[in-house]
């Protein structure tokens, strides 16, 4: 079932249930998904080899839409694979405890940002104090569990090694043990202290009952390509694949997901309005970057990365630039774009008032 159809079927119920308590970013996501490939405009093309002509609808391009941005995921994966080094890789996952999830949802723009900062600072502190090196890191924010519940956490992929910067800024490379980075409980303590410090500095109120023991998971992931492929699947697409939305009957939606422990596909049924509200909790604030690079993997450190690749004798493939073309379905000749007519996405859920800002009580995570 298409998510677009599901939202259209229950649009009136969404408005009646949540009213003005939907956040502006959530309203924009709903409008974009409803308009995708139907009301966003179209482009016209014709074939050079025959008389065939074509009219194609434009997609909305919203990052919460499951029909859009698949090409961006492939492009990101290719860029990350160009950065891979011939060393063992680790994937570190920093999880926000249950007691802080409501706070995170109420202060999304601030807390998601300091979640990145705390995780990166914790790892860089370990690199400096334990190994005297500087890490290169790729971090990605996820906000959902497999069953689409609200569960903010940060995945970080890092090469098993780092830079030693000596006198006169002379650089050298130091590799780490293949199977061990640091004790998970020790890293969790560092992460907890740094994040709570940032929350105090930002005047974010701390709820009662914050646990002393937090969860950080560290996995050795071999050469890193598997971790990159895993993250790319969830990066530039909606929270759920439309193939996993099975039915919408009598106001009840049934969807499937894969359990993390058993790896089996299981189904879950809940009211359509609850299902849609769960998806809306994962709409990120406008302009928020959910993928960030640090250290020698940062976009401004390309020269440093090349020096590391030379030190490790990485064979860099020659990049051949090519432009993707559309083929004619009749004769396979090149299609020429004649005209692109974009249209403004209609406002159905978007209306702004003072009541819509910083009041997400109706969609509080459970």
Structure description:
The protein is of the alpha+beta class and 366 residues long. It has helices at residues 3-9, 11-18, 24-35, 70-82, 101-106, 108-131, 184-201, 225-233, 272-280, 302-311; strands spanning 41-47, 53-57, 89-95, 137-144, 150-159, 161-165, 171-175, 216-220, 245-249, 252-258, 265-271, 291-294, 335-342. The protein has ten helices and 13 strands. The strands form four sheets. It has a five-stranded antiparallel β-sheet with strand order 8-3-5-4-12, sandwiched between helices. A hairpin with a 5-residue loop joins strand 1 and strand 2 (53-57). Helix 1 (3-9) crosses helix 3, helix 4 runs antiparallel to helix 8 (225-233) and helix 6 (108-131) crosses helix 7. The longest helix has 24 residues, at 108-131. The model is unreliable at 352-362 (pLDDT under 50).
Essential attributes:
single chain, 366 residues, alpha+beta, five-stranded antiparallel sheet, three-stranded antiparallel sheet, 13 strands, globular
Largest sheet report: 5 strands, antiparallel
Number of strands: 13
Poorly predicted regions are 352-362
Strand order in the largest sheet: 8-3-5-4-12
Q: In what range is the share of β-strand residues?
A: 15-25%
Helices, strands, pairings?
Layout (H helix, E strand, L loop, with lengths): L2 H7 L1 H8 L5 H12 L5 E7 L5 E5 L12 H13 L6 E7 L5 H6 L1 H24 L5 E8 L5 E10 L1 E5 L5 E5 L8 H18 L14 E5 L4 H9 L11 E5 L2 E7 L6 E7 H9 L10 E4 L7 H10 L23 E8 L24
Antiparallel strand pairs: 1-2, 1-13, 3-5, 3-8, 4-5, 4-12, 6-7, 9-10, 10-11
